Amino acid sequence: MTIIAVTGATGQLGRLVIEKLKARAPAESLVALVRDPAKAADLGVEARAADYDKPETLAAALAGVDVLLLISSDAIGQRVSQHHNVIEAAKAASVKRIAYTSILRADDTPIGLGVEHRATEALIQESGLDYTLLRNGWYLENYAGAIAGALHAGAFAGSAGEGRISAALRAEYAEAAAVVLTSEDHAGKIYELGGDESFSMADLAAEVSRQTGRSLPYNDLPEADYAKVLESIGLPAPVAAMLAQSDVGVSKGGLLEEGRQLSSLIGHPTTPLAAFVAGVLKSL
């Protein structure tokens, strides 16, 4: 029996990956790697303590694991050292293949977040392990807050210009990971993953306007001005700056992916923007 482990398994993506894996593999073949196993009790699979910052926890956590999904850490600025710890432990534990959740076109993305993903990819490729790189685009869920904010403020704001965004639901990226982890012929593959239907921020504004009957324009702002807007709603300055820079990266094509590799992997179309917007509005 092939043993499959998932790091960060109690995170938003990790939980969905475990759920999708359980539909494709026996629960007893799955391992959730988490900082606090007690928080993983509801996952219905074995949970092992594993902390990116504590290498001594990782060797035991990976014992007997054949295939590992390394979900990228959310500790921006610390990711490379944390991921290095996991990769070294995977080598020591003789893990057969490692998959990693990277960023769309990590090798040349204009989005600043790509730096740490690019460095992690290099570590994996130099590790000697078989690997699969899952270069995920943005989650549609990233825009739920923007929709709620626009309904309150009367307009959308950003620095994305006319850049197009190939976003998909978090669950769809999770499903792709589950497919890759449970099937063969993915070693050495790099997948550029995004939604079938791209949209601009103006398109998003128009769709929300259509469904609500309100006129909600998209106001494109200089990067520094957008960062100030984000700070004004309570985001820490470094996070606001990162998000504003990411938007500028969108304006340069950083999140457009038209290869439809995601829907090809999961075997069905990704969720359209209109359906996502309808779901968000229903939840508000």
Task: Give an overview in words.
This is SDR family NAD(P)-dependent oxidoreductase. Pfam families: NAD_binding_10 (PF13460). The chain is an alpha/beta fold. The chain folds into two domains: 4-136, NAD(P)-binding Rossmann-like Domain (Rossmann fold, 3-Layer(aba) Sandwich), CATH 3.40.50; 142-164 and 196-257 and 267-283, Alpha-Beta Complex (UDP-galactose 4-epimerase, domain 1), CATH 3.90.25. Helices cover 43% and strands 15% of the residues. The protein contains eleven helices and nine strands. The strands form two sheets. The protein has a seven-stranded parallel beta sheet, with helices on both faces. Helix 3 (79-92) packs parallel to helix 4 and helix 8 (223-232) crosses helix 9 (237-251). The radius of gyration is 19 Å and the shape is globular.
Helix percent band: 40-55%
Radius of gyration: 19 Å
- In the CATH hierarchy, the architecture of the largest domain is 3-Layer(aba) Sandwich
Order of strands side by side in the largest beta sheet? 3-2-1-4-5-6-8
Question: Terminal Cα separation, in Å?
Answer: 44 Å
Q: In total, how many beta strands? A: 9
Quaternary structure: single chain
Helix/strand/pairing category = alpha/beta
Give the low-pLDDT segments.
none
Number of helices: 11
Q: CATH fold name of the largest domain, please?
A: Rossmann fold
The CATH first-level class of the largest domain comes to: Alpha Beta
Write the layout of secondary structure elements.
Layout: E1 4-7, H1 12-22, E2 30-34, E3 46-49, H2 55-61, E4 67-70, H3 79-92, E5 97-103, H4 114-125, E6 130-136, H5 144-153, E7 156-158, H6 170-182, E8 189-193, H7 201-212, E9 218-220, H8 223-232, H9 237-251, H10 261-266, H11 273-283
Parallel strand pairs: 1-2, 1-4, 2-3, 4-5, 5-6, 6-8, 7-9
Domain NAD(P)-binding: 8-146
Organism: Caulobacter segnis
Pfam families: NAD_binding_10
